[in-house]
Amino acid sequence: MPPIPLNATKSGYQLCVRLTPLAQTLAMQELNLKSAMSDILAIKLQKLLMLSSHRRLLLSKLVHLAPDLGLSPNFRSRLCNDHPDKFKIVDTSYGRALELVNWDPKLAVPLKFPEVNRGLIVDRPLKFKQLRLRKGLNLKRRHRDFLMKFNELPDVCPYNTSVEDVAKPSIEAEKRACGVVREVLGMMVEKRMLIDHLTHFRKEFGLPNKLRAMIVRHPELFYVSLKGLRDSVFLVEGFDDKGRLLEKDENSDLEYDFDDDDNNGSTEIYPNGRNGQSNPKYSLEMLTGRESLSRLIGKRRRFLPNRQSTLSSPIQSSLNLLSDKNGSLAETDCSEGKVEMSSSDWVNCPVCGEKIPGGDYAINSHLDGCLSRRTKRKLTQRTLLQLNFGCSQSKAQISCSESKKLQSSDLNKGPCHTEDKTTCGFSKISPSEEKRQDQSRELPQTENVRQIDRADSIENSVSDGREKVMVDSPALSSDNEEPRHLLDATVDNISGVAIDTFIVGRRFSDEKDLNLGATLSLLRDPDNVKDSNAIKVVSASSTCCKVLGYLPRELAQYLSPLIEKYGLSFEGCVIAVPKNSLDAVPIQIVCQNMTLTGEKGCDNFEFFKHFWKKALQVVDFAKNRPPNTTKYQQNFCLLLQEVLTASPHLFTDNEKKFIESFYSLSEDSQRLFVRIYTRKGPWFRFSTIVYPEVGDSQQAVEELSATGYIYRVEDKTELNDEEMKNLLSLLTVSELRDILCTLKKKCNRGSRKQNLIDSLLSSYNGGSCSVLPHLILEKTEICIRITSEAESVFWRTERLFFLNGEQDLSAFLLVDLGIMKYPTYKCIISEQIFSSKSDLLAYEEAIEVAQIMDQSLDENNFELVLRCIMVAESHISSSPKKLVDSTTPELMATFLSCFSSSWVYSKVVLLGISFLEHEHRYNDAIHLLRQLLNCFTSDKRRGYWTVRLSIDLEHMGYPNESLSVAEAGLLDPWVRAGSRMALQRRVLRLGKPPRRWKTPAFPESIKRKIPEVHIQGRPLNCEAGRKSRFYGEDGEQCGVEQLALQYYAAEGGGWQGVHTESGIWLTIFGLIMWNILFSDVPNVFRTRFQTAPLDLETDHFYLARKSLIESHLQKVHDGLAEEILITSWELHLGTACRGVNWDRHSLSDLRAAVSCIGGPCLSSLCRHLAQDYRSWSSGMPDLLLWRFHGDYKGEAKLVEVKGPRDQLSEQQRAWLLLLMDCGFNAEVCKVSPALIST
């Protein structure tokens, strides 16, 4: 086994990297070139030493300049020793340094400024002074005058002028510093370097402390680039107007051109492709819905049980994406042709009386013609605009049955059909309906609700799926709750009760060796810095009370109050002695006496009973989990137990027995399986499996293999083609070459690992190397992987436990380490997410399709992407309405629909729509959008779908249908916020005469004037597609938001504020509404690792808590928001909550913002977020500003900042209008480049 690298993060891992053939050739050429340029490089080092004040530079600093100077990596051992006549290496107090030996006056000549061709016919002095600057660079008059004065000064030789020769600070000192920087940049290969590297030599070269500001101050000499993580400085005179080097260094002649070539196996590194062409894989990462689908999938599964059936079975889809690649609007399932108009589709023109087709376009076109011909008008203008012509079918009909139902079924469904029935994106409810809904939403208080406390796990056993269970989280509970009669008997006769537990923390003990039966006693240790509830275990047989260890933390937290308040004392003995002296020691302790005053039922007795019950639960829970068990092992067992207890109906009897058999495995087997399960895999070499906590890996593998948890291969007859490919990937490149040499196959030294694997597999499939399986197993020896049955069962349990794909067993680790702290809430479960196993299997199959889709996009397998889209579309279209329609008022838990297979397939289809639009297949995208709108009639995504449908119809050349879709979408109560704003603007743009003569009712509201403020700044870049950067008032670089903050703090009126966009608002909402977010509502909390209720982004959140929310917001309205904020901050600091960012915002800033905003505005904002968190949680203004008038009064302002080429999005415009309606002072700040006056 090769030695493990020192920087390896995990045992058994060794990362091997080698160059491709082309890269290796280029590297060899570069080394040869650098060796030939040894003299030139030595001159560069000599000149650098001549520039330094003490003629000495540290080698540790020169390393930073080595790549830019063209030095080889080993220049310290080669180049520095090969020229003793120029410099030598000396030892200093700061480390080894390079010291100048010979001053060469021939080299002490500064760079000459390039000659400027002024293009004059007669060469004569200019009448006015000129400053040559780059194109597009505008400077203020004062800055321009300074540079002219600077250029008039005599040149300073940086070699012959030391720092002491010039006054500091002065313009002469700046002249010398610019000369030094200019000389250093002139030595660089590409006439550029990082500013950070230049600042390392500030003292050696005598450069000013504010070096970067000096460089920025001289744009005629230097150009500062903001690309990359750190800024770079370029020598302006070294480049032409197009940014090309005028004189290339000899080192720069070597071009690194890594192309994707199958022969050499090099790697493509161009993010946007060669020659400006787009890279398909890079652009597909930006598809709408890609990130959301990846989060839904989470960690990709090793085995997909339904993959083969999904890819091979026939698809009952109305869309044939694999063959229809044209852009026509006709769809594949339409057997009928163009719909011909019947006689009833014709109407009479009110102007000329002629019969005309009843379509909107035909009517409007005919009317426009009649009016332009000055035909006698039979009706007034107002009557003409309000006239209903009857049939509104369009002449340009789409030859498909869905288009006929556009306004009747696609977009008009829902309880609200008019614009005035919605307010701010939320449906109005009558007072009587509110009362009935509040009564129906009261929390269940019936007797069949039982509350279960937690000690170390969650007990929520469900017998028939309908029993209501209330679970206190995140505290832990026992496996089996102590019976009440047994508890009462134990409390009455507590003296003499024996408790089996352990001694932990043996490394802190005074006595390492223990004897069986040794007596002991318990002693409180309140001064323990690790745990204030600590209880020491001391030896009772020794006169000096030697410390043997401590009780487990979980038990001590309940026994310590009983010992202090009630005087309980415990004595016991050792009942077993472990092999290792540092392992936990099993003991048995017995309660000796107790002082309990009061009668049963009083607070004193109830307090004692509560803590005693908790202690017994911890003891009972620890029986099957000794302290020697590793933490991740305990967490995995806890996960399995809770899922089996909560959802037994989702597993077959065989699956239950398989999961329960995990507890009977040995400690080593359990640990090894959990370790392998959390790794990527799927195959592992047994020789690389080394874990310190696993004592006997060989025995553990044999046990896991015998019980069906892992599959072990050590015989060549057990290998198939797919397994052989996976096993070959476990081999190193040298091992693959050895196999090729054994088979006498051609092997190029520069071949990549994948090329070697492909070569071996092709030879094996061709029948020329039948011994390949034997050779592979000779190299790998024993290989193991998790069986498909184990992976499927445990993936399901993990999914049921966390209810998402983003969390895994690492969530336990974050809690154990104290990195993550989850809020306290109660889990009241009255309805199962998956009522039957068939629902769960359908959900799992949908996740598989989503994973195949995601992997296919990574691999650019477009044919498989299209097949996944068709599979998802077929399932959506064939799903019964009850699975996708949640409009029934009786179903309060509509938020649980996101755990249905239809929801997952809708995400796949949405990503497919974005992919089809990317491929300009708008016809197919239109079909899928109609399918989504038909099937999901109560979904907040309908707004985005409607906007895309309208846009795609316009792309296809059907503006009338696009307008109809937009108009119908405005009648949909599920179209809200920015989507509603976008549709309104589309209606105004497309609905002009002759398409629509009647003006809509909303133009005045959508065209409202938003206040604007215009400021100017000095730009750094003016490139399209890049974020604008400016110089701030302090001369440092900043974005438009920081520039606006500086303006409002100074000229804008002394405002304080932060640039946070939605961050500070969601933090304020989370802190103020904390008790509402984590209130006792059924079915919204199901795991201990939730940071928000499941229904937060649905209408159910507000409806289920309406009375609580309104009473709480009334307190906010009355001015108690700051008090609520402070209380919530102090109680829950550091606790994870959706939207709350503890690190970014301080309590003082939050208090200032809340007090200046005022109660009415803040309560209105929180109400909108509570009603529709999904629609309003993004697009908020960039800046939140505040200022005080006196000690207690203040005002706030919200500002959306836009750069020179930026425009307001529809969501941002909707937010600004909403804030203005709520009483906020909102405006738009537009930043533009400053105009230079001459």
Automatic annotation (TrEMBL):
Molecular function per GO: 5'-3' exonuclease activity; 5'-flap endonuclease activity; flap-structured DNA binding; hydrolase activity, acting on acid anhydrides, in phosphorus-containing anhydrides; phosphodiesterase I activity; RNA binding; zinc ion binding
GO CC annotations on file: nucleus
Cofactor requirements of the protein: Mg(2+); Mn(2+)
Class of the enzyme per the UniProt entry, highest EC level: hydrolase
Region (Disordered): 253-281, 422-482
Domain UBZ4-type per the UniProt entry, residue ranges: 346-375
Record's compositionally biased regions (Basic and acidic residues): 431-441
Assigned EC number: 3.1.4.1
Domain of life: Eukaryota
Feature: compositional bias, Polar residues: 265-281
Gene Ontology biological-process entries: homologous chromosome pairing at meiosis; interstrand cross-link repair
Subcellular location, record wording: Nucleus
Pfam family, one: VRR_NUC
InterPro entries: Fan1-like (IPR033315), FAN1-like_euk (IPR049132), FAN1-like_TPR (IPR049126), FAN1-like_WH (IPR049125), HIRAN (IPR014905), PORR_domain (IPR021099), Rad18_UBZ4 (IPR006642), tRNA_endonuc-like_dom_sf (IPR011856)
Catalytic activity: Hydrolytically removes 5'-nucleotides successively from the 3'-hydroxy termini of 3'-hydroxy-terminated oligonucleotides
Keywords, alphabetical: DNA damage, DNA repair, Hydrolase, Magnesium, Manganese, Metal-binding, Nuclease, Nucleus, Zinc, Zinc-finger
PROSITE patterns: ZF_UBZ4
Sequence similarity: Belongs to the FAN1 family.
Functional description taken from the UniProt entry: Nuclease required for the repair of DNA interstrand cross-links (ICL). Acts as a 5'-3' exonuclease that anchors at a cut end of DNA and cleaves DNA successively at every third nucleotide, allowing to excise an ICL from one strand through flanking incisions.
Protein name: Fanconi-associated nuclease
Species whose genome carries this gene: Corchorus capsularis (Jute)
